Amino acid sequence: MGRITARRRVTRVRRGAQPTTRVDVLAVEEPLEMRVNGTRLAVTMRTPGHDVELASGFLVSEGVLTRHDELTTARYCAGTDDDGLNTYNVLDLALAPGVIGPDPSLSRDFTISSACGVCGKDSIESVSTRSRFDVSDDPVSVDADTVLDLPERLRGHQKVFAKTGGLHAAALFDASTGELRVVREDVGRHNAVDKVVGWALARDLLPLRGQILQVSGRASFELVQKAVMAGIPVLSAVSAPSSLAVELAEEHGLTLAGFVRGQSMVLYAREDRIICGNGPGSEGERTVASEQEGIR
């Protein structure tokens, strides 16, 4: 299997001091070509590891898979480096009979960067896939303090980030108990989420009702879409959401929290699920804002 980290000699420059050299640890980024029933679907830039989860989670976000038995096999295809060794960078997923594959019009004839999971699609309409799960009727509720603690808990499990400082992470938490279900890291925020969803698919846990998806960066449109497609009712992000992410969350009834940073957070959609102090929107020792604080 591919390496997760690589070591490189670097030069460090400090103001007013002589440059120094040292060996640094970097997060590995390599392409993964995803095929479905032998046909190339897309190439994504990812951190090697949990590739089957990544590819199957990607197919959940495309509206292809909702159950583990809809996927029969996943195997690495021939792909070798200069030494003739398998690079494990080509993965073919075989769907069960009767399962309809991805819409051919959505096939990517380009590489999906680690920064964007939906780049190049023709229109917003083609991205906003209709989910087979309805998150708007999920009766989940969660204490505000529980949500505010999630980024720190996630950081405590980011083992590769601690070495490299170069990976995003996504984690699944149970809203009622606060139990950590799974953590995945990747150079791409959307890949980390796909790996989490693929983990759940392999265990036939979809839809992920009563769960919280915590991400280490911003909440982009594609992350909201992936949460909706997996039936996750709550998405919590350390940084800001985009305007389109908020619109999609409102449209589907997903609770969206941004700027979740220990003492405060900003609720952008379905704030009724977050219980704070004497009720939603109340003031306590920790502040939960319904509008962005300090940034205009």
Per CATH, the class of the domain at 142-275 reads: Alpha Beta
Mean pLDDT: 86
What is the radius of gyration? Answer: 20 Å
Strand content: 25-35%
In the CATH hierarchy, the architecture of the domain at 142-275 is 3-Layer(aba) Sandwich
Protein name: Sulfur carrier protein FdhD
GO biological process, one term: Mo-molybdopterin cofactor biosynthetic process
InterPro entries: Cytidine_deaminase-like, FdhD
GO molecular function: sulfur carrier activity; sulfurtransferase activity
Task: Explain what you see.
The structure is a single chain. 22% of the residues lie in helices and 29% in strands. It has 296 residues and is of the alpha/beta class.
Provide a quick synopsis of the model.
Required for formate dehydrogenase (FDH) activity. Acts as a sulfur carrier protein that transfers sulfur from IscS to the molybdenum cofactor prior to its insertion into FDH. This protein has helices at residues 51-61, 124-127, 144-155, 159-164, 189-202, 221-229, 243-252; strands spanning 5-12, 20-27, 30-36, 39-46, 71-76, 90-95, 111-112, 142-143, 168-174, 180-186, 211-215, 234-237, 255-258, 264-269, 274-275, 287-289.
What are the defining features of this structure?
296 residues, alpha/beta, Cytidine Deaminase, domain 2, 7-stranded mixed β-sheet, 5-stranded mixed β-sheet, disordered C terminus, molybdenum cofactor biosynthesis, sulfur carrier activity
